[in-house]
Amino acid sequence: MSINFKSVYKILFVIGLLLGFVSVFLDWYYLQGISEVSGETVVYWIYSALFDWSTPFSKGALFNEVYQPKNATMPIAIVIAFIIILFLSAYSVLFHDVERGDNLLKVRKFNFINLSLVTLIGFFVLIYPLFFLLPNGLYYPFLLYYDYDLEVTFYFSIGPGYFFQFISFGFTFPYALFNHSVINTFDKEQSSVENTINRYIKSVREDLDLDKLIAREEYKLESTNNSQGEVPKSEVEKIYEEFLTTRGR
After folding, report:
1. pLDDT tens readout for residues 119-139
2. Is 78 a residue whose pLDDT tops 70?
3. I want to staple 19 with a disulfide (CB 3.0 to 4.6 A). Which of 164, 197, 242, 249 is the partner?
4. Residue by residue, what is the 3-state secondary structure of the chain?
5. How far is CA 222 from CA 109, 117, 118, 139, in A?
6. What is the dihedral of CA 18, 24, 28, 31, to 10 degrees?
7. Which residues have C-beta within 8 Å of that of residue 46, sequence separation ≥ 6?
């Protein structure tokens, strides 16, 4: 029993798209502080890629406000671009396939979109923690830290949204890479066929010079007419002409 890897990759890719779409509506990161004295939660911040940082506390909770994360938010334009590219990728994987004979140029454009999607997911999975979380003291992926002065235990941890993005990257990458390889193969084959045809046409093609052709045909006709109008001379006539020529001297 042979396994159709392309079908498997495509199914995983679609699942990855669904997980990536759902992830933007879920929590990506948690910052929580619990007082060891009272046992109450005194700090609680939640990050979502689409809705930014939020807290269940009111603005009167000063201790919570002090620990509000600063400069740890991804630009919303990147998130919106991710959603748009995600829908375009879903359209491409469902309705366009170079192996079905679709236009190679159009499929190549959609392949660029798929690669862009995987790149964005990689940005969320790797670049966001390194350039937004860690520089702002938000430890990754999780950490338990006890502050002896405040007598508060801080919990730093990633949420389900980030997990979904991580899984989405693993599901979308194989198909994007496989599809890119297939398109490149078709592109090379098409270029090879076109080059072969062009070389053949160039080798058998002869530039036609109409004036030269007409002149050649006219010359043939005149030669034919002249040969048909002349009567072969007898030996007597030849001797007489030579005599006249000699006498004329």
Report:
1. 999 999 999 999 989 998 899
2. yes
3. 164
4. CCCCHHHHHHHHHHHHHHHHHHHCCCCCEEEEEEECCCCCEEEEEEEECCCEEECCCCCCCHHHHHCCCCCCCCCHHHHHHHHHHHHHHHHHHHHCCHHHCCCHHHHHHHHHHHHHHHHHHHHHHHHHHHHHHHHHCCCCCEEEEEECCCCEEEEEEECHHHHHHHHHHHHHHHHHHHHHHHHHHHHHHHHHHHHHHHHHHHHHCCCCCHHHHHHHHHHHHHHHHHHHHCCCCCHHHHHHHHHHHHHHC
5. 64, 76, 77, 100
6. -150
7. 27, 29, 30, 31, 53, 54, 55, 159
Per the confidence metrics, is the pTM higher than 0.85?
A: no
* pLDDT tens digits for range 98-125: 555 555 566 677 778 888 899 999 999 9
Determine the Cα angle at 189 with ends 184 and 193, to 5°: 150
Q: Half-sphere exposure of 36 toward its Cβ, with a 13 Å CA cutoff?
A: 11
Tell me: the pLDDT tens digits for 202-223?
A: 555 545 455 666 667 666 776 6
**pLDDT at residue number 2:** 47
**Look-up of token digits 């693993």:** 170
Q: How far apart are CA 33 and CA 120, in angstroms?
A: 31
| Structure-token pair, residue 179 | 């599809």
β-pairing verdict for 142-147 and 41-48: unpaired
Query: Within 13 Å, how many C-alpha atoms sit on residue 160's CB side?
Result: 6
